[in-house]
Design goal:
With 83 residues, this protein is mostly beta strands. 0% of the residues lie in helices and 66% in strands. The protein contains no helices and 6 strands. Strands 1, 2, 3, 4, 5 and 6 form a 6-stranded antiparallel sheet that branches. It is globular.
C-alpha cells in the first residue's frame, strides 16, 4: 500500500514549489547535494539524510551538485490526471 519512486535530478534541476494537500512524503537521499525548501525554511540534502514532509506544506527541491538521487515514499493514491 505504498508508492516508492526513485528520483534523479541533474545539477540545477528541481521540482518546482507546490503544495501536496493529500499525502505525507518521506524522502531518503542517496547521492548528490541539494536543498529542500519547506514553507520557506531551507534544508540541506546529502546522502544519508531522511526527511519527512507533511502534507499541506509548500515545498520545492533543487539539485546543487548532481545527480541528486533520492527515493520518495508515501501511501498509495489514485492516478494523477492532467489539469
Amino acid at each position: 500500500q505504498l508508492n516508492v519512486n526513485v528520483m534523479r535530478l541533474a545539477t540545477g534541476a528541481g521540482i518546482p514549489e507546490h503544495v501536496n494537500g493529500e499525502l505525507d512524503v518521506l524522502l531518503v537521499i542517496f547521492e548528490g547535494v541539494g536543498e529542500l525548501r519547506i514553507d520557506g525554511d531551507l534544508r540541506a540534502l546529502e546522502p544519508g539524510i531522511v526527511v519527512g514532509v507533511p502534507r499541506g506544506v509548500r515545498r520545492a527541491i533543487r539539485c546543487l551538485r548532481g545527480p541528486l538521487v533520492y527515493v520518495t515514499v508515501h501511501r498509495q493514491r489514485g492516478g494523477l490526471m492532467p489539469v
